[in-house]
Every structure is written in C-alpha cells, then in structure tokens.
Design brief:
Length: 251
C-alpha cells in the first residue's frame, strides 16, 4: 500500500514533465524542463534542461513507462539533451546549436579540436541573445563512429591521416551523424524560425529538409592553435565547412 502511494506521488510529479513524440517505431520520451544553473565563464547562467530517450516501444501509461525503464539498463542507451534559455517557444529571435558530443574536447578540454570552445561559446551566444537552445547529441561521437573507434582514428591521425581518411580507413563513412531525433524535439519545443549556430552547411540542410524555417546562420570559429590547425583546415577543405568569410573552397 505504501509502495503504491509512493508510486502515485512520483507519477503526480512527473506526469506533466514527460512528453511523448511518436515515431514510426516507438517514441521519443522527452523529460523536462529542469532548472540547471551553469558556470559560464565565471558567471552562473540558469538554463532549462531537457533530456530525451529514443525507445523502441510507444507507451502512453506513465506507470508502465517507469516500470519498463527502471528494468532496463539505460546506461547502454544514448540519451541526448537540450539546454534551453529564455522564452524559447515564443521569442521572435532564437539561436540553436546542434552540438555533437566530443568526450575529449568537451570534458578533457583537448586542443586537438575546437569542440570544447564551440560548446561553451554556443551557450554564451544563446544566453546573450536572450533565447535559444543547445542540443547535445550523445550519439555523435567521432562524427558517429563512437568513442573507441575515435581513439583508433586518433592513432591514425598521429600517423599522417587526416580526420576524413582516418574514418574511411577504419571502414566508416566520413560523417554518419543523424539529426532526426533532435529535429523532432526541436519541433516540439518551438515552431517559429530559428537561427543556427554552425559552420557546417549539412546541418542547415538537415533542418531545412525537415521543413524547419531557418532564418539565418551564426558562424562559430575560434580557439585555433598549432594542435588543431590541420583539423580545422580539413573541416573546410574536405568536409565542406564554411570558413570565417562564409565560403568554402569550391565557391
């Protein structure tokens, strides 16, 4: 009896914090918003945190959801996040960043890439803009090849391969990232146009092909060093990223 009451109390708290986004197979389970104070360049900025899980079953009973999820090993699932700032749903101008996880750059502060800089700088731009969202995509490590394969790719890079050839040499495509889930969550949180923080035109195309109105692009270059010079040049020359002037080598 006490256990049933406890479950009932939990469901009462959670029922308006969990949303289902139906998919062709299963559903995206979106939980939030949750207040998340973040240290951003020495200043505390409060974001609204959402987390989502793509699950193979569509379950609209919250008690059943809890039963299913607490009997599964969720650590084996890739669970992504969105950090939302300001009145994201209604603001006329909102910035969005689709940020691919980078274990080495985001957590350790590696200088081999510019990912850690882009993460913090995107959050800063969003806060300064007054409204926006950073989508942190946990299944994008190494442009989709995973952390262990990324470690092997780094060894190849230390032996003369660039980032593209390293991925190809391991039997992967250069970039296998998929933005479908993030786009579905974005559509749920906002219907108005967004401006995308990116140097990658493929991200723009993904949003536009999904029917989202992208009103502009905010470039994001910085944190250049001797350690990531070749990496950044490969982004521009081989992966089609726009340079600081908004052009790519084929223009």
């Amino acid at each position: 009896m006490k256990e049933n009451k406890a479950v009932s109390n939990v469901l009462t708290i959670l029922e308006d914090k969990i949303r289902l986004i139906e998919q062709k197979e299963g559903a995206i389970y979106l939980v939030g918003p949750i207040q998340l104070p973040v240290d951003l360049y020495g200043e505390t900025v409060v974001f609204q945190w959402y987390c989502w899980l793509n699950y193979h079953e569509l379950i609209d009973d919250y008690k059943a959801i809890l039963h299913k999820l607490n009997s599964a090993n969720l650590a084996e699932f890739q669970q992504c996040s969105a950090l939302v700032y300001g009145d994201f749903a209604n603001s006329d101008e909102a910035l969005v960043r689709m940020h691919s996880i980078c274990h080495t750059g985001d957590i350790f502060g590696s200088k081999r890439c510019d990912c850690g800089f882009q993460l913090k700088q995107s959050m800063k731009k969003i806060a300064e803009n007054g409204a926006g969202a950073l989508f942190y995509l946990a299944n994008h490590e190494g442009r989709g090849i995973g952390l262990f394969s990324k470690a092997m790719a780094y060894i190849l890079q230390e032996n003369g391969y660039d980032t593209v050839d390293a991925n190809l040499g391991l039997g992967y495509v250069d970039d296998s990232r998929n933005y479908n889930d993030a786009i579905e969550v974005l559509k749920t949180l906002r219907t108005k146009p967004v401006s995308l923080i990116t140097n990658n035109p493929k991200k723009l195309e993904s949003l536009q092909k999904a029917g989202l109105h992208v009103s502009g692009r905010e470039p994001l270059w910085g944190d250049k060093s001797e350690f990531n010079h070749d990496y950044l040049q490969t982004k521009i020359k081989r992966s089609g990223h726009l340079d600081e002037e908004g052009t790519c080598p084929d223009d």
